[in-house]
Structure formats: structure tokens, C-alpha cells
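Extended Data, panel c. Modelled sequence:
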Amino acid sequence: MMRDTSGRTIRYLRLSVTDLCNYRCIYCMEPDGVCKKNHGEILSLEELLEIASACVALGVTKIRLTGGEPLVRRNIVWLCRELKKLPGLEELTLTTNGAYLPRFAQALKASGVDRLNISLDTLDPARYRAITRTGELKGALSGLAAAEAAGFTDTKINAVLLGGVNDGDIPALARLARDRAVSVRFIELMPMGVCRDWERERFISADAVRKALPELRYLDSDGVAERYTAPDWAGTVGLIRPVSHRFCRQCDRIRVTAEGRLKPCLHSATEIALRGLHGEALREAILRGVQAKPAHHELLETGSQSGRAMYEIGG
């Protein structure tokens, strides 16, 4: 079991397998996309597995694979299958924009992936294209259908709240949870990366969801999400408030970038190099990273100090 200096038990690893993505979302990266790294700069699948194994041996029980877009990583299904074999791992999940799920959903389910998070910021085709720059709404919806056909349940649909962009889409997105047994989660935009200096109007509180959907009633908490539902709804609506309601006291996660650097906090500049370490040296470095986890972020005071965009860290 790993505990940080604030007494939080660390159980959750977000493992980025690539910084590449087939989309260019406006809040994540520049219009030209990412500067592609040399193949040797990115962890091999074997290195990713070794780091994950060390984390699980130290007490991690949940791993989420992230990117960029994790499904652009070659042999991602092999990695999922091997991760699922780790003794002590209770849950393996994956975050995706959904475009590749028609191709991969069945294989991911067969490999042992327990659950999917699908990013979906709007149900308006033109707005979807504008937000993603390269994506097509029909691709994401086909991906959601493929996940359901493959047998995935408790799917989480993540929508980033963008004031003046998609806040008018809140009711339509929430209706997905009325008709399906999914959780539609609205996430406050964080001032980091390309949107660090955006106008204040873009950063709206998740209270906008309660105002748009007065029929919602509080259900419970699921990790960092407040969950709501309404009569006769099949699913739930989640509110994730990293800015307006700092939830750092409940944070039980660490992140590892595709380059092999452990980030104890999404918004901290602290990074611990893991690549090239093995055995006890690797475990000691992970524990050192956990001890460097700050008590809380400074988003409201100074903004994110991470120095990286979201695609470089893993969502």
C-alpha cells in the first residue's frame, strides 16, 4: 500500500501509451497537432508493462490507459491482455474518443478491459467538427454503439464544459443518460496547456449543468464525480469540478507519461524519471514520486504548473 504525505492511499494509475491522437481538440493541442517524437523516446509496450507491474505490486488496483488516443498505439490489445494478468489489478479501463472502437471494441472486451470512457463534447455535427478540428460525430456515435454491442457496460461519456461553445448542448448530452445505462460526465475546463490563457468566459462552473437540468437529483459520489439522476432515467449525470470544487483530498492517483515520467499531480511541475529503472530502483522511484504528491493544486492561485499539455500527460 502506498500513502503520500497527506495520508492518501494511492490506488489508481493513469498510464499514457502515446501522445499522438487522430483529433486536434481545441482545448488540448495546437491546430497543427503534436510534434511527433522519435520512436525511441516513447516507452515500449514491455516498458509500460514493467512500470505498471511495479505500481500494482506497490498497491495500485486500477489502471486507466490514456493518450493522446490510446487506440492509435500499435498492439494496444496485447498490452491490455498482459496488464489484465497482473495479480492484484482489480480494474482496467481505457479512455478514447471512440473513432476506432468499431474496429477495436470486441478485441478490447476479449482482452479484459473492464470499462470505457468515451470523450464526446457535443451532439451537434458541425460543433463536433469545430471542437475536434478533424473528427466526425458519426464516428464517435458508431464507437459508442460498437462498445455497447461488444458488451461494455457502465460506459462513461466525458464532456468538457466550454463556455460559449458547448454549454447549450448540456440537455442533449444528458439525454444520453436518460435513454442509456451510461454516465454522462461534465468536466470543468482547466486552465492548462493551450487554454491556460483563454478568456474567462470559457471557464464555466459545472453548476451550469444543474441550472440546465433542474430535474436532476443528487444520487451519490463516484470517485471525484458527483452523480445525479432523474425519474425514469436509465443512467446518471456526473459533475467533475476540479476548479470550482477542488477535490484534491480525495485524489488517489498518479500518472505516468508515454515518455516514462511519473507525475504525482496533474498540475505540478514535479516529474520522476522511471525509464531505464528496474526492480527495487523502479519501486523506489515510484515511492519517491508518491511522496512528492502535493496536498492540493494551485489552479485558482497560479494556474497549472505542469508545463505540459494534456495530451503529453494523459487525460
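The chain has nine helices and 14 strands. This feature is highlighted in the accompanying rendering.
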